[in-house]
Design brief:
Number of strands: 0
Largest sheet: none
Distance between the termini: 13 Å
Radius of gyration: 22 Å
Shape: globular
Number of helices: 18
């Protein structure tokens, strides 16, 4: 970005940006409350349709399939920043070029991984991967194929989420979760009354729910922003490199995040068995209320930081970061309350058959506090594209996470407590680096406008 392109920041810019952020935070709270309510209904309903072990397999499969979201080599996040810049500068043609080119690239990636999935399916011992004897390898193969297909299809469709964020319409991405959970809830309710517990049927229904929810919102978005509808006339292969320049760094961070957050279920499955995954996930889901609520509040800020940085609005960013730091006080109080009443809440919510050690609730609370703290600074540096320190800390965290989790869980006989402890230790590095880097940028560097703002 050339300095001459940077519009002069005005009080009006700050007021409008703050109003947009507050509006979408409010809408996201409403949508997220609905999504959470529906997701919490899904847990006992799904367990009722399957059984404890099958549910553990299902949750492990979903966590593995969630890796699909990282296959875009960072193009989604790269598009988010570049599109937000183009929108901020009112460059509609450039915005449409970014969108069209990104859709082509992501579609080609999805086709490549679908081909790999087809080749790998027959030669993979799925019953050993999921450590189960109650479900045959043949049945698991079918389930993985169906769920894999839908996740890859959804991988292309969900690129619209990055466009929602780029246009500072973050609440629409949350509305997708409401629709997904609603459709899934209806589908599982029908399954309970018309079919016995079957992972394949569940996979089909869940996949269709994902696709339908995305299609509805894609139609809405492009009806509202018709000027950026993808077109082959606007595809410029050279823009892939421009998007990927920043995107590759995001991709490496995503891989590290994948290792840190998406391998817990697999580690537990291999070391302790799939039944333990259910207990771990129920406790995790309880404490995730905090990270979800905090995520609602900061979701619109990524692209708002991009807009503010592009316009040199230092004061707005500084004030926003101060407010987020003060918010840590009520968050820590809420986490403490959850730790004390975790067993009682889970007994009422799911039932007394879900047992877990008290230490797991304490460690899950520590994990939530560190995650929230890290996200305050991660969203800022992500929004302005200065992600090199985060990149290095993420690589280190990703490398040590699995060995630490296995060591704590198996060698020190800490069980599922050890798995979350390994995650906590892995996240601690950025908890120190993130605030230091942010202080340097905001207080000392004062937003030097270098190129596009990427390091």
């Amino acid at each position: 970005m050339d300095k001459s392109q940077i519009p002069e920041v005005t009080y009006f810019d700050s007021v409008v940006r703050t109003k947009v952020v507050k509006t979408h935070i409010s809408l996201t709270f409403i949508y997220k409350a609905l999504a959470i309510g529906l997701s919490y209904l899904l847990v006992p309903l799904t367990i009722n349709y399957l059984n404890i072990e099958q549910y553990g397999i299902w949750m492990t499969l979903l966590s593995v399939m969630s890796w699909v979201a990282f296959f875009d080599i960072g193009l989604g996040n790269g598009l988010r920043n570049k599109l937000a810049e183009a929108v901020s500068l009112n460059s509609i043609k450039l915005a449409r070029t970014y969108v069209s080119t990104a859709y082509l690239a992501v579609t080609l990636i999805a086709l490549l991984f679908f081909f790999i999935l087809i080749l790998a399916l027959p030669f993979t011992p799925w019953d050993k991967i999921f450590n189960t004897a109650s479900v045959t390898n043949t049945e698991l193969l079918k389930v993985v194929f169906v769920v894999g297909f839908f996740f890859l299809f959804n991988f292309v469709l969900s690129l619209c989420n990055q466009m929602f964020y780029a246009y500072q319409e973050a609440s629409l991405a949350t509305l997708r979760s409401v629709l997904l959970n609603l459709f899934a809830l209806i589908a599982i309710y029908v399954l309970i009354h018309h079919a016995s517990g079957n992972l394949l049927y569940l996979g089909i229904c869940y996949g269709l729910s994902m696709v339908l929810s995305n299609l509805i919102l894609i139609f809405y978005f492009f009806k509202k922003h018709s000027t950026v509808i993808p077109s082959k006339k606007y595809i410029e292969l050279g823009k892939i490199r421009e998007i990927a320049f920043l995107g590759v760094k995001f991709f490496i961070i995503q891989i590290a995040v994948l290792v840190i957050f998406a391998t817990d279920n697999m580690i537990i499955t291999q070391i302790l068995g799939p039944a333990e995954v259910t207990s771990y996930n129920v406790v995790f889901k309880l404490f995730s209320v905090i990270t979800i609520v905090h995520g609602i509040m900061i979701a619109p800020l990524w692209s708002a930081y991009t807009d503010a940085y592009a316009k040199g609005d230092t004061n707005w960013i500084r004030n926003t970061l101060k407010k987020l730091n003060l918010l840590m006080i009520p968050i820590m109080i809420a986490v403490s309350i959850l730790i004390v009443f975790a067993k009682d809440i889970i007994n009422i919510w799911v039932g007394p058959e879900i047992e877990f050690p008290c230490l797991l609730a304490v460690l899950m609370g520590v994990y939530v506090i560190i995650s929230v703290w890290n996200n305050i600074y991660a969203y800022f540096v992500n929004g302005i594209g200065r992600i090199t320190p985060q990149l290095y800390s993420a690589i280190i965290a990703g490398l040590i996470n699995i060995p630490l989790s296995v060591y704590f869980a198996k060698s020190l006989a800490m069980g599922i407590n050890g798995v979350i402890l390994g995650t906590i230790v892995s996240l601690f590095l950025f908890a120190i680096i993130g605030p230091i880097q942010t202080y340097y940028i905001v207080k000392i560097n004062v937003f030097e406008q270098e190129g596009s703002g990427c390091e």
